């Protein structure tokens, strides 16, 4: 064989091997980057992102966008290097996103549960801000269980055997005096439906002497209309703030955004406290590229947010739902709200 050809082939071997490694070998990293944004005042797949039924709502316009972080798993070495060089993606050890003691399915279930909890908290926080009164709300009905088919999640329990209950303590006190096998009458209020009475034969539980109703309940604001959040394939708790703002915008006059393109993020609890989230810089980049001029930042994320501050977006610091609403009103009137 010609020595020149042999030399060339010898030089090509490591290049070919490296190319194969780039294309085939996977790396133990997950990339995090800007994900899609969703206008909580708009529609996705023909459904309103925040749908309120059973009460007249006020027309809304403009944008109150929630933001997300995109995850890519199963990266090859070549893909990882390409994403890293782009500067738009962050590579993190896979174990930080998918812990070794949990399957991917378990992690996704946890994220879905966090998202559902954020929807519930967003509703409670918004109704509380709007001064709807607390009630003993049914959060979950066990199926199978004594109340399956008789009570529904979202019902407000008004009385037990004719005795009114105004809060969880009163309800729990009455239930402690019951026995397994006893039939009781639960007066309830139901969203978008008439009030009713359910007669329920209580079950038994090994950890209590009293009867088992088979529901989870909590004290939370209640309204006679329904609020549904229609976003699929989104996990985690960070949409709570923007969901609450959309509910308030639809149930009050005027536009909270004041014709500005508002985006943001933040967890929220039942009392309206806004909490920090992960991936703030990725969400800011997604919002900026979508056209946002204002970004609502949880107060505890401000330092990180300032690390990539862009003049094209005003960073508004928020720590409560009420504070976020006040800040939007301030923007609408031409003032300067608290900033990062």
TrEMBL record:
Domain PDZ: from-to ranges: 112-168
Homology family: Belongs to the peptidase S16 family.
SUPFAM superfamilies: PDZ domain-like (SSF50156), Ribosomal protein S5 domain 2-like (SSF54211)
UniProt organism field: Mycobacterium pinniadriaticum
Catalytic site positions: 238, 283
Pfam families, per database record: Lon_C, PDZ_2
Keywords from the UniProt entry: Hydrolase, Protease, Serine protease
Catalytic activity of the protein: Hydrolysis of proteins in presence of ATP
Gene3D superfamilies xrefs: 2.30.42.10, 3.30.230.10
Listed InterPro entries: Lon_proteolytic (IPR008269), Lon_Prtase (IPR027065), PDZ (IPR001478), PDZ_sf (IPR036034), Ribosomal_Su5_D2-typ_SF (IPR020568), Ribsml_uS5_D2-typ_fold_subgr (IPR014721)
EC nos: 3.4.21.53
Annotated protein name in UniProt: endopeptidase La
Keyword Ligase: no
Domain Lon proteolytic: 233-331
């Amino acid at each position: 064989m010609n020595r020149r050809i042999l030399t060339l082939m010898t030089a090509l071997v490591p290049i070919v091997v490296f190319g194969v490694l780039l294309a085939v070998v996977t790396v133990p990293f997950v990339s995090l980057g800007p994900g899609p944004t969703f206008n909580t005042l708009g529609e996705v797949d023909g459904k309103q992102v925040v749908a309120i039924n059973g009460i007249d709502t006020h027309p809304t316009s403009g944008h109150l966008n929630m933001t997300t972080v995109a995850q890519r798993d199963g990266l090859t070495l070549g893909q990882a290097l390409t994403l890293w060089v782009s500067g738009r993606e962050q590579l993190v050890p896979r174990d930080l996103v998918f812990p070794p003691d949990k399957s991917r399915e378990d992690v996704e279930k946890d994220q879905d549960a966090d998202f559902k909890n954020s929807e519930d908290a967003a509703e409670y926080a918004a109704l509380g801000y709007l001064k709807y009164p607390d009630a003993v709300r049914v959060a979950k009905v066990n199926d199978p269980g004594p109340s399956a088919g008789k009570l529904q999640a979202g019902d407000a329990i008004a009385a037990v055997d004719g005795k009114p209950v105004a809060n969880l303590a009163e309800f729990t006190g009455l239930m402690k005096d019951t026995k397994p096998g006893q039939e009781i009458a639960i007066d309830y209020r139901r969203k978008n439906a008439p009030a009713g009475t359910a007669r329920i034969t209580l079950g038994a539980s090994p950890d209590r002497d009293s009867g088992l109703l088979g529901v989870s309940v909590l004290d939370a604001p209640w309204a006679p209309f329904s609020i549904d959040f229609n976003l699929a394939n989104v996990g985690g708790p960070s949409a709570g703030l923007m969901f609450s703002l959309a509910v308030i915008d639809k149930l009050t006059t005027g536009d909270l955004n004041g014709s500005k393109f508002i985006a943001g993020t933040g967890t929220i609890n039942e009392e309206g406290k806004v909490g920090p989230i992960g991936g703030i810089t990725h969400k800011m980049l997604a919002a900026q590229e979508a056209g946002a001029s204002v970004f609502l930042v949880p107060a505890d994320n401000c330092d990180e947010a300032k690390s990539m501050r862009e003049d094209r977006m005003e960073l508004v610091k928020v720590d409560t739902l009420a504070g976020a609403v006040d800040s939007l009103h301030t923007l609408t009137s031409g003032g300067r709200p608290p900033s990062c």
